[in-house]
């Protein structure tokens, strides 16, 4: 049975700026959230995570989070902007774990491994990671325009471009990296595994073959 959550911390009446701090802006422009606003945001995310676990991320609504947290719907919208913003915030913890692994973790995924090995390990890691959390990734990625322009996708794109250049792959590196990201798209992976019955291991082997073709051409 879930323990009762602590109540939201109400902003001081003498500080009208609290309600002007909404959802988290892009990195580098993020203001320092007041302690009470940060706690409120964390509690809303805790409520949202619990609801997503109970009913599925695809069925999560801003209204349901507001009701469960016993706050007005406007409070949830102010903190996260919209439903996609809420889902992206829920993904943040999982995404940070993956990013830490390929940016600073041990080889072959992290540094100190040849670029071709890191490329192979990167695709396998993304496939396993996103499929393990596919319900949340599918729901958060429903808006294609934001899926491609989001910070997490941009970081993955930059990482792939860097590895392709270090592997001395010729041609338009950015378009190659975009093609590789398309292979890893969770919507495609979910279709191939869930509807076509392909084991995840087959997709990992296919990724290794794709990397090999780019690297061998170099």
TrEMBL record:
Task: Tell me the ranges covered by the HTH tetR-type domain, including all copies.
Answer: 38-98
What keywords sit in the KW lines? Answer: DNA-binding
* Feature: DNA-binding region: 61-80
Q: Which PROSITE patterns match?
A: HTH_TETR_2
Alphabetical list of InterPro entries matching this protein:
Homeodomain-like_sf, HTH-type_TetR-like_transc_reg, HTH_TetR
Q: Which domain of life is it from?
A: Bacteria
SUPFAM superfamilies to which the protein is assigned, alphabetical: Homeodomain-like (SSF46689)
User: Which protein are we looking at?
Assistant: Helix-turn-helix domain-containing protein
Q: Which organism is it from?
A: Streptomyces ossamyceticus
């Amino acid at each position: 049975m879930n323990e009762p959550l602590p109540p939201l911390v109400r902003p001081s009446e003498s500080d009208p700026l609290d309600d002007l701090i909404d959802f988290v802006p892009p990195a580098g422009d993020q203001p320092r959230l007041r302690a009470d606003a940060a706690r409120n945001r964390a509690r809303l995310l805790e409520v949202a995570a619990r609801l997503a676990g109970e009913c599925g991320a695809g069925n999560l609504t801003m209204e349901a989070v507001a009701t469960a947290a016993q706050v007005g719907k406007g409070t949830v919208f102010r903190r996260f902007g919209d439903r996609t913003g809420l889902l992206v915030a829920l993904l943040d913890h999982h995404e940070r774990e993956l990013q830490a692994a390929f940016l600073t973790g041990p080889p072959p995924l992290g540094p100190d491994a040849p670029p071709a090995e890191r490329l192979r390990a990167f695709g396998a890691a993304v496939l396993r990671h996103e499929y393990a959390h596919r319900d949340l990734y599918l729901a958060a990625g429903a808006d294609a325009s934001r899926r491609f322009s989001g910070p997490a996708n941009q970081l993955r794109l930059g990482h792939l471009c860097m590895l392709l250049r270090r592997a001395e792959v010729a041609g338009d590196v950015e378009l190659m990296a975009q093609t590789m990201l398309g292979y890893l798209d969770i919507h495609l992976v979910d279709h191939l595994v869930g509807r076509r019955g392909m084991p995840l291991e087959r997709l990992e082997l296919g990724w290794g073959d794709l990397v090999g073709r780019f690297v061998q051409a170099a």
